[in-house]
Amino acid sequence: xxxxxxxxxxxxxxxxxxxxxxxxxxxxxxxxxxxxxxxxxxxxxxxxxxxxxxxxxxxxxxxxxxxxxxxxxxxxxxxxxxxxxxxxxxxxxxxxxxxxxxxxxxxxxxxxxxxxxxxxxxxxxxxxxxxxxxxxx
Length: 137
Ligand SMILES: Cc1cc2nc3c(=O)[nH]c(=O)nc-3n(C[C@H](O)[C@H](O)[C@H](O)COP(=O)(O)O)c2cc1C
Fold this sequence. Notes:
It is a single chain. The protein is of the alpha/beta class. It has one domain (7-136): Rossmann fold (3-Layer(aba) Sandwich), CATH 3.40.50.360. 46% of the residues lie in helices and 11% in strands. It has five helices and four strands; from the N terminus they run H-E-H-H-E-H-E-E-H. The protein has helices at residues 7-16, 33-42, 49-53, 71-83, 112-136; strands spanning 20-23, 57-63, 87-88, 95-96. The chain is globular and about 45 Å long. The chain binds flavin mononucleotide (FMN). Flavin mononucleotide binds next to loops.
């Protein structure tokens, strides 16, 4: 189910979160404009950047119908994550290619291999989030 929330509410949801997982599509070998625009809105006013994004653990993953699994889009997020002062996690990569054969018609992940890759990715990111939180406390 899709839930629509405003930018202010989304900001507070990010502030309250332990980490941010960006699931990115890829458009013309880069970040889709609509997704980038959402992050851009969240970064204004600039005085809010530190509160919303500063030191926030962030992981990027993605799926695409082609053979490269959003690798260029994931790379294109790097300067954005740096500019916002996040703590990007580089300990794992999830590049889901041929997405049409990995998800079923209901949009559920139907591949055991990808499921296992996703499990490992999420576990690695959670461990990173815990390390960052321990350093802060
Ligand atoms: C304008 C446009 C550009 C795209 N460029 C790429 C691309 O560079 N690499 C890729 O793997 N897929 C590309 N695709 C396919 C998208 O990965 C695919 O459509 C994906 O499902 C996008 O999600 P959406 O439903 O939000 O559009 C492109 C799709 C569109 C509409």
